[in-house]
Design a protein that fits this description.
With 315 residues, the chain is an alpha+beta fold. The chain is built from 11 helices and 12 strands. The protein is elongated.
């Protein structure tokens, strides 16, 4: 029975390469593995390139490489995410064996599977709970369904690829560049933007034990007191909207007279703004387009390093 696999495209950043080239690929800095069929031989090849990796982690990666090279078969379906977290592309594997390109191209992954990508899409939010839960797996290669035909019959499959971004093209472009960086970059960028907007005493805390606060700062209200601002950063893809649980978590950690900013690169579920205004009035919501627009407004005040990483700006 044909199966359904997920092959992540660098968090969606390589999806266009996959679609334009008619393939899916894996990296891990490995050379041509098309002749390496045995799991032990794959393990030896991987260790030769990554000798310092913790053995259990290495074993997990080798299992993914083995699945991609030797278990995915002709007729199987490959699903890959895009920059928009709600939209996944899918296509059919059209050759039994993996291959390495004969000549070099701009795409740097060598080990590939030929895929006939469909023009329509999968909308993640319309998938059943079980499939949505499975898609949270962070591995690069994993099995999504062992029954291709049952999966393709789901109502979420084969829909138009038109889950729109709520902002404009320039905002979408800069948010896409933010998604190419690590989460720590987003938190530091928020701190720099807050400083450009007049905040002081910036404290970037993101990571384990941050108590739901990634950035803290002070802002002086003219002729009044200094207010402490607590920021929760959510670097989510468009389509992965924030629900009330995140708002309440931030609100719960606020001290008396504190203010919360929940800043996301995506958006908020439709009911959240009204409920937040009523139930958590000390938390203010900033969605992706709003954040991007503030970056544009304060662009010249942002340090050159961040402008180099995110620019040039789109018109």
């Amino acid at each position: 029975m044909s199966k359904v696999w997920v092959v992540r495209a660098g968090g969606g950043t390589l999806a266009d390469d996959f679609l334009d080239g008619g393939f899916a690929s894996i990296g891990w800095e490995m050379g041509d593995l098309t002749e390496v069929k045995d799991l032990d031989a794959l393990r030896d090849s991987y260790r030769a390139v990554h000798p310092e990796q913790f053995p259990p982690a290495a074993g997990n990666v080798v299992a993914q490489i083995h699945a991609f090279m030797n278990q995915i078969a002709s007729g199987d379906i490959i699903v890959t995410p895009t920059i928009n977290a709600n939209v996944h592309r899918f296509g059919e594997v059209i050759e039994q064996e993996p291959y390495a390109p004969v000549s070099a191209d701009a795409h740097h992954h060598v080990n590939r599977r030929k895929v006939h990508w469909r023009d329509d899409c999968i909308l993640r939010t319309q998938l059943p709970d079980a499939e949505r839960k499975t898609l949270r797996d962070r591995r690069t290669v994993f099995l999504l369904s062992d029954d291709r035909d049952a999966f393709l019959s789901l109502p979420a499959i084969g829909l138009p690829c038109d889950a729109p971004f709520p902002g404009n093209a320039a905002q979408a472009a800069i948010l896409a560049r933010i998604h190419q960086k690590n989460p720590g970059f987003f938190e530091l960028l928020i701190a720099e933007l807050l400083q450009a907007m007049g905040c002081t005493d910036l404290d970037v805390r993101g990571g384990p034990g941050d108590q739901g606060v990634d950035v803290a700062a002070h802002i002086q209200i003219p002729f009044a007191d200094t207010v402490k601002v607590h920021v929760q950063a959510k670097r989510y893809q468009p389509g992965r909207d924030i629900d009330m649980r995140a708002v309440k978590k931030l609100n719960h950690g606020l001290p008396d007279a504190g203010r919360g900013l929940l800043i996301t690169t995506s958006g908020f579920k439709p009911h959240v703004p009204a409920r937040s205004a009523e139930e958590t009035p000390s938390v203010f919501l900033i969605d992706g387009p709003t954040f991007a627009e503030q970056l544009f407004d304060h662009w010249q005040e942002i340090p050159q390093y961040f402008r180099d990483q995110l620019g040039p700006l789109s018109e």
